[in-house]
Specification:
The chain has a single domain (29-303), classed as MetI-like fold (Orthogonal Bundle). 72% of the residues lie in helices and 1% in strands. It has 14 helices and 2 strands, in the order H-H-H-H-H-H-H-H-H-H-H-H-H-H-E-E. It has helices at residues 2-34, 40-44, 55-61, 64-96, 103-115, 118-128, 135-142, 154-182, 186-194, 199-210, 212-227, 231-236, 248-258, 262-296; strands at 310-311, 314-315. The protein has a two-stranded antiparallel sheet with strand order 1-2. A hairpin with a 2-residue loop joins strand 1 and strand 2 (314-315). The longest helix has 35 residues, at 262-296.
Amino acid sequence: MRARRIAVVLLLGPALGLLGLFFFVPMIASLALSLTDFDIYAVADRSALRFVGLRNYQVLLGDPLFWRALRNTLYFVVVGGPASIGVSLAAALAVHARGARLKGLFRTVFFLPVTTTIVAVAVVWRYLYHPRFGLLNYALASAGLGPVDWLGDPDWAMPSIIAMAVWKNFGFNMIIFLAGLQSIPERLYEAASLDGAGRWRQFLHVTLPALAPTTLFVTLLTVIGYFQLFAEPYVMTQGGPAGSTRSVVLLMYEEGFRWWNIGMAAAVAFVLLAVLLGVTALQATVRRLLSASAARGGGAGAAQPPPPRARKGKVTA
């Protein structure tokens, strides 16, 4: 037992030490900063640093800019999250289809936007969204419709950023869905086909139930990632127009690195952390309820073929 303990310490000690040094220590320091009025003056003179307790949180929760940024972020998550998951699942199904050709090529092509830098993506999409010379407005003009200021109109700016984010990020979730699809036993589809189930019923009764754990995992990753929206509005609109695309993380960046209100920026970070913990706890609760419901139903979440039905005077078993 002593030798095992020594081995555990030797194997886990370096990793835990690095985790504590680069994760827990900065988190504790950030929490301490959120309770102070640390700003650019305190950088030069530590005597200007004062402990203010929860005042930063009180000011933040009473600031309309924060609530606008939180509403923009929720809008991005609620609209962009399901869209990204739906496009990812559709792409995975298309690549995984039996008759699909060049699967490796399409997997690579669909995954390429994930590896592309956000600056390069922004250059291309800003050209597509250009109010006078953009490809989208050219298509609208060909259809007899007027141009749209995609990034300059507060009503269109966030949907435009959502479209770009979905295009850039769906390839990552597609790979996860592909792994889930490849783990579904082929005999389930054969049994469903023998029972007369078509492609649509096989998708509803076999594919979706079998992908439930994968879908929950993808949903969790997508929600957490989309709550941290920053790069897209930063490079596309800088939070405009009229603050319609300013996210919580972008607000934190502005407070910390534009106005040098480090204490307020740290408070924004911990409020966002609290929101993410709440969302994660809610998703975990939903997952437990679904697992318990599936277990009571006798499937424990496993996919089941559709029930047999009578066909042409005989019953299939």
